[in-house]
Amino acid sequence: MDKFLIKGGARLKGEVRVSGAKNAVLPIMAASLLVEGEVRLLNVPDVMDVFTMAELLRLLGAKVERLEKGVWTLDTSDLTSSTAPYEIVRKMRASIYVLGPLLARMGKASVSLPGGCAFGPRPVDFHISGLEAMGASIKLEHGYINAKVKKLKGVEIAFDRKSVGATAHLLMTATFAEGETLIANAAKEPEIVALADFLKLCGADIEGEGTDEIIVRGGKALRSPGEYRIIPDRIEAGTYAVAAFMTGGEVRIREACLDHIRTVIDRLRQAGATVEEEDRTITVSNGGKILPLTIHTSPYPGFPTDMQAQFMAMLTVADGTSIIKEGIYPDRFRHAFELQRMGADIKVEGDTAVIKGVKHLTGAPVMASDLRASAALVLAGLIARGETLIDRIYHLDRGYEDFEKKLSSLGADIRRIQD
Ligand code: UD1
Question: Is 232 in a helix, a strand, or coil?
């Protein structure tokens, strides 16, 4: 298993380009199951989750090709299977996105239940009840979701709480359902808007994306949009912004969609960062100390749970005590215990972490537990005294393109060790 060896102390300086958003491309790849003809996607990041989704689509019979860096084609004309096996789904929860499109295309689908993950149970009940409301009959058997349907129909769906995955999944499926679907309490993340943009380019009739209520008038065949460009990854942009600030450096982050990371930038400024904005570039620097923060993660446009671990790493050396309340995944704090091993003073109680700033972190062998936790440990390693060895970085490879290469180009001393 690959590891990262980091020698702390470098101030990051230079320019970095943000890659395409993993969480935007995955639902769009799944939605291509509903589209007639070849779909060409641009700005697709080379991250493991994209390769896993490609492998899944190929297993279903689709032609999926990576023509060159960033450019992929998908042709789902001839599907040969309606089963998403455990071996793939266990690697990536987003595999659930193929359930609705397969039902729509083939009248049946069998998708392994994703199961829990490193930050607590992550149920799929909203996905299942939404598809049932659209007319599917669903049974959970032997660890699989077995679904069939004669005809999907438009319905009103109101989620108990906001779910990015269920909103995306039911939004794409509703384009195929006969009649109107109303999704109430919909997620408003930029990746949902991107999916709606893609579907609309394919001819879908969708209104209200980016608000709490999405209306889909379904039943029209979707045709290829030709090319579609994946939006920049707001979490990757945020991660480099935090890295620049906490190392006391100065980094120009290109292809950052400012509107999508407004909350994150606001919090960085509150912590003392200087952030200059121009066009699609932000420049983040730090001339002084890191001020403590109180953060509560919540659905977009609130502070993203996917930036929580990176901010925690930063706040370990803040000038005072910070509080982080996790409003999406109450036990997403495994990274806190690894940060403690590097000398951080963090107390976790229920859904809240209290972080007392210390003078400095010290390098240590640590273990990554999920994608964003891995990024947080890398950031901590960048400012720690001495060497940090991070194990299980396959989590990081799921969602950050060329992470160590980009950091090295900014002056970080980080090496991938293969054993
Ligand atoms: C997506 C993102 C992930 C991010 C998360 C929250 C992708 C591929 N992943 O995950 O990076 O951390 O949004 O912003 O886009 N829930 C239910 N029942 C369901 C579905 C969700 O109770 O059927 C709950 C979850 O347990 C969680 C909350 O709803 O507490 C939000 O989860 P959700 O937005 O669905 O997360 P994902 O789509 O899995």
Answer: strand
Task: Identify whether 202 is a catalytic site residue.
Answer: no
Indicate which residue's Cα is closest to atom 4 of ligand 1: 306
Question: What is d(CA 320, CA 309) in angstroms, rounded to the nearest whole number?
Answer: 18
Helix H or strand E segment including 364? none
Starting at the earlier edge strand, list the strands of the sheet with 365-367: 365-367, 387-391, 3-7, 413-417
- What residues contact residue 272 under an 8 Å CB cut-off, 6+ apart? 245, 286, 288, 289, 290, 291
Residue 5, Cα to own-chain centre: how many angstroms? Answer: 25
Instruction: Collect all residues with Cβ–Cβ distance below 8 Å to 96 and sequence separation of at least 6.
Output: 89, 111, 114, 124, 127, 165, 169
Q: What is the pLDDT of residues 244-280, one digit of tens each?
A: 999 999 999 999 999 999 999 999 999 999 999 998 9
pTM reported for the whole predicted model = 0.97
Beta carbons of 72 and 260 less than 8 angstroms apart: no
| pLDDT reported for residue 116 | 52
Q: What atom in ligand 1 is closest to the CA of residue 23?
A: 15
Find the angle CA(42)-CA(43)-CA(44) to the nearest 5 degrees.
90
Across-strand partners of 414?
6
* Cα distances (angstroms) measured from residue 416 to each of 2, 173, 360, 396, 413: 7, 40, 24, 12, 10
